Amino acid sequence: MGKKRIYLNAFEMNCVGHQSPGLWTHPEDRSHQYKDSEYWIELARILEKGRFDAVFLADVLGTYDVYNGSRDAAIRQGAQSPVNDPLLVVPLMSAVTKHLGFGVTASVSHEHPYTFARRMSTLDHLTKGRVGWNIVTSYLKSAALNIGQEKQISHDERYDIASEYLDVCYKLWEGSWEDDAVKVDKENGIYTDPKKVHDINHEGKYYKIPGAHLSEPSPQRTPVLFQAGASKKGRSFAVGNAELVFIGAPTINAAKHTVKKLREDAAKAGRNPDEIKILTMVTPVIGRTEEEALAKYKEYQKHISYEGALALFGGWTGVDLAGYDLNESLEYVENNAIRSTLESFTKTDPDKKWTVEEIAKSIGVGGMGTAVVGTPEQIADSLEEWIEEAGVDGFNIAYAISPGTFKDFAEYVVPVLQERGRVPKEYEGTTLRDNLFAKGDQLPAHHPGKKYSKVKQPI
Amino acid sequence: MGKKRIYLNAFEMNCVGHQSPGLWTHPEDRSHQYKDSEYWIELARILEKGRFDAVFLADVLGTYDVYNGSRDAAIRQGAQSPVNDPLLVVPLMSAVTKHLGFGVTASVSHEHPYTFARRMSTLDHLTKGRVGWNIVTSYLKSAALNIGQEKQISHDERYDIASEYLDVCYKLWEGSWEDDAVKVDKENGIYTDPKKVHDINHEGKYYKIPGAHLSEPSPQRTPVLFQAGASKKGRSFAVGNAELVFIGAPTINAAKHTVKKLREDAAKAGRNPDEIKILTMVTPVIGRTEEEALAKYKEYQKHISYEGALALFGGWTGVDLAGYDLNESLEYVENNAIRSTLESFTKTDPDKKWTVEEIAKSIGVGGMGTAVVGTPEQIADSLEEWIEEAGVDGFNIAYAISPGTFKDFAEYVVPVLQERGRVPKEYEGTTLRDNLFAKGDQLPAHHPGKKYSKVKQPI
User: Fold this and answer.
1) Which amino acids does the record list as binding FMN (chains A, B) (predicted)?
2) CATH second-level architecture of B7-291+369-452?
3) What is the DSSP-derived secondary structure letter of residue A158?
């Protein structure tokens, strides 16, 4: 058996300065060009040349407004604000690539599953089967308010809604149109055999959809399912459905802890724990020499916006650190909310005292993930260590500066990982799912989504 | 003063056989390739080379199921079924063009205005200001049911919802972010000045949106507003907001009637009647000689699917013609619903008796519009006649076969129209609005949408 393969996603968002708040001020950063199609086209070419498996597009439908009780910090620092729609850059990127996959974030709270299912089928057709869906339930209160939800739905109920939403999508994607429904029979004038198109007759607690799917079957039918979920409900949702799970952890120890939990839950849910691929977030800072890399890292740190970092932290955790001094150590803060939301930081080393400044700095280059700094070989060493020690399967590569970080990683680190047998030299499948798992284009027969399929599945 | 300019839209839809049911069986038709990005990329190149102003993408969110009380006919004949999302082909087409505009159909019943406004701003950014929005209120019962509306909202109330929906969009697009809000000031670390981003505080009958727009201002802010509306409420909505109105009429007389009404209503609403550009639908059948064109037309007619045509007719009018003989004349049908919905046909010539077959044939090549058949010069003559006699400003060019019809029109008819001074030789603006009206990128100062602008408008 060869070495464990490393999966690589590029982590992006249709906004400025995705995970490294303030680094948009770096002279080489071009993430403020997110509005231009040219930016996305160039990025797609870089990533496919670098044999990334996919680009993972994050999204929020609100502005981070916990810090200091206001959205001003996020807006001023460009901390994921303004933010554009992620779906619409996918056709651009797919037009100049043949293999790169696209994981698109879309919340189950914000669009009806009937229209959403058509959007994803359309994308899967246009990309010839290269689409993934990062299922989120949305966590920003400002988003809930703006789409008319008087108060935000409780965390647990959001997962119940998500489960039914997913069921509706499965029925539309897997169960509505049979494989051979569409004939395009010009001779006999039959485009589709209506007997092979089925109403889904869904009547649930949250949705009622009597009809059939609007789109004909796309190459993957159900897009590859991505999920990020650190909470208990989130984990159980993830292990039940997701094919790729994304975590963020500032250290190997913290990641190890989450990976262990996820695989245990997967086993309990009756899934093969290794079938779920777990990717953690990493921001590489690459130099030709170690000194060069460290100098670069130091230079990047000068561009960190503490205000932007704490605005992001507030949105992610619900905790407002505006009232604390930068050098205040959070271990001593008598605040249970902070204690529990800092879990992923404190898990690192229970004895370590994180100051507000240290948290801001950690987020500043690499967000909720970690920065790895060094030569291409050192970065490769470090990634291999994460794979072996924490048990993750790969990485969401976030950028410090864009597209610079992606370009450096693709040019210098990927060849080393390929040399070491960790990353395949060529793409192996045509669809995203086949490329990732080499077991065909569609959901595996035993996946919960396949139970709605009209085709008898050999298990 | 020169001759009246002719505006040209290509009329398309993300489906097979858009307006000419059954013609997808023609050996040269490639509309079944709507699923492939290559189809849209090729089409965009043809249209920009042919100096079309825009491509107008229609949409439905349901299946035509009035005919024979079933959706089977529409599905079997591929009559606008299956149908994919229209927005997602726009980035593809914009990536290979610089001037072509994109009118995208989106219903106000099916997505929350807060998320929709962001989608359109995103498209306007990515296309550098080339997006139009065809505002529809949706007419298919199957669509209403599938998105959870127990019974379809009444026609009049739909227009009330549409009005408020549009108001929300105007507030987000025009009133939320000031022109100079976004600084991208790397030196001082200010991406956006939060004082120049405003909550819209919308509280209406149907929507409540406290927050600010998620996207920064796009080149046009509000996309160019398209509308099709033949009903009284539809007309009043159109004349209040639309910049481009689309009509369908089988004859010059029928079009003349509608154009007159529209301009009268516009004047009553206090708008300059000529400010609203009215486009009617035409399907050109072009030959090098008249004989060749007529032979082509005859050949096309052989491919008409009556079943498909009557399925479309049922969806458009709500009238099921399944029980009637093909040679039955509808003048004699004692059915008021048919009488009134046939208005646009009977208006042509009050003494003419339309048989079911004639209706099917008329729809068969050219849908609710008309076919014009002849040499490039004859087609140009005919279009000029429509412009002068019916008072329309231009045409939605539908296809008999795709992309063949568009290719022929672009190659052979457009040069004649350019020679005659009806179609400009070059694109004149960079944004769609500027290209159409040559008065800047954004809504004119006196347009109702501009009342939410933070900039004092010189009227």
Assistant:
1) 59, 105, 155, 159, 231
2) Alpha-Beta Barrel (3.20)
3) H
**How many angstroms separate the CA atoms of B119 and B110, rounded?**
13
Rg for chain A (alpha carbons), in Å? 22
Which among A391, A76, A14 is positioned nearest to B91, based on CA atoms?
Answer: A14
Element (H, E) at B286: strand B277-286
Q: Does B178 touch chain A (CB under 8 A)?
A: no
Inter-residue contact B165 to B158 (CB < 8 Å) = no
* Among B110, B210, B216, beta carbon nearest to A146: B210
- The reply, when asked if residue A107 is annotated as ligand binding, is no
d(CA B194, CA A67): 14
Contact A151, A193 (CB under 8 A): no
- Give me the helix-helix angle, B155-170 and B232-241, nearest 10°: 10
Say yes or no: B58 contacts chain A, CB-CB below 8 A: no
A387-429 pLDDT tens trace: 999 999 999 999 999 999 999 999 999 999 999 999 999 998 8
- H-run or E-run covering A378: helix A376-385
- Within 8 A of A146 by CB-CB distance, chain B residues are 114, 209-211
Pure H helices in B397-441 = 404-408, 414-419, 432-437
**Under a CB-based contact definition with an 8 Å cutoff, are residues B95 and B37 in contact?**
no
Sign of the alpha-carbon torsion through A332, A336, A342, A346: positive
Residues B166-214 pLDDT 10s: 999 999 999 999 999 999 999 999 999 999 999 999 999 999 999 999 9
A437 touching B, CB under 8 A? no
Would you give the distance in Å from CA A192 to the centre of its chain? Answer: 36
Eight-state DSSP code of residue A365? T
- How far apart are the C-alpha atoms of A184 and A200, rounded to whole Å? 23
For residue B113, give the nearest of B42, B256, B36, B209 by alpha carbon: B209
Residue carrying the six token digits 């897009």: A223
Mean pLDDT of the region B306-331: 87
A39 φ, ψ (degrees, to nearest 5): -60, -45
The rounded radius of gyration (Å) of the Cα atoms in chain B is: 22
The Cα–Cα gap between A220 and B130 comes to 32
Please report, for chain A, the start and end positions of each structural domain, with discontinuous segments joined by +: 7-291+369-452, 305-364
Yes or no: say if A372 and A255 are a contact pair by the CB < 8 Å rule.
Answer: no
**Tokens 């800092």 identify what position?**
A342
